[in-house]
Amino acid sequence: MSTQEKVLEEVLEKTADQSNNEIVLYNDDVNTFDHVIETLIYSCEHTPLQAEQCALLVHYKGKCTVKTGTYKELEPRCSKILEAGLSAEIV
């Protein structure tokens, strides 16, 4: 392997490591499907179909990853979700 290839691999690994954070949405017995769907469309820029699928996964599985990216990108989105009364965290 040449030095250039090794450096390129290291750069690619660092780039991949920076975007491995996720917003995980958790199920609750308070919010309606419509509210969850509207919140995901607004806060995560989901399509209505994506938001509906995530809402169903949260309902049946208890949690669902709704967005991935860097912590800096996810923090304001997670804040919007929390302000809407949903349970979520960045992991």
Descriptive notes:
Keywords: Hydrolase, Protease. InterPro entries: ClpS_core, Ribosomal_bL12_C/ClpS-like. One of its GO terms (biological process) is proteolysis. Residues 18-83 form the Adaptor protein ClpS core domain. This is ATP-dependent Clp protease adaptor ClpS. The chain is α+β, with helices and mostly antiparallel strands and 91 residues long. It has one domain: 2-Layer Sandwich (Ribosomal Protein L30, Chain: A), CATH 3.30.1390. The protein is 60% helix and 19% strand. It has four helices and three strands, in the order αβααβαβ. The chain has helices at 3-18, 33-44, 48-61, 71-83; strands spanning 21-26, 63-69, 87-90. It has a three-stranded antiparallel beta sheet. Helix 2 crosses helix 3 and helix 2 (33-44) runs antiparallel to helix 4. The longest helix is centred in the N-terminal third of the chain and has 16 residues, at 3-18. It starts with a helix and ends with a strand. The mean pLDDT is 89.
Write the element-wise H/E pattern from the N-terminal end onward: HEHHEHE
- Can you give the helix content as a percent range? 55-70%
- Envelope shape: elongated
Structural class computed from helices and strand pairing: alpha+beta
CATH homologous superfamily designation: Ribosomal protein L7/L12, C-terminal domain/Adaptor protein ClpS
Low-confidence stretches: none
Q: Would you give the CATH topology?
A: Ribosomal Protein L30, Chain: A
* Total count of helical runs of at least 4 residues: 4
Number of domains: 1
| Cα end-to-end separation | 35 Å
Strand content: 15-25%
The radius of gyration computed from the alpha-carbon positions, rounded to a whole number of angstroms, is 16 Å
Main β-sheet, spatial strand arrangement: 2-1-3
CATH uppermost class? Alpha Beta
By CATH, the architecture is named 2-Layer Sandwich
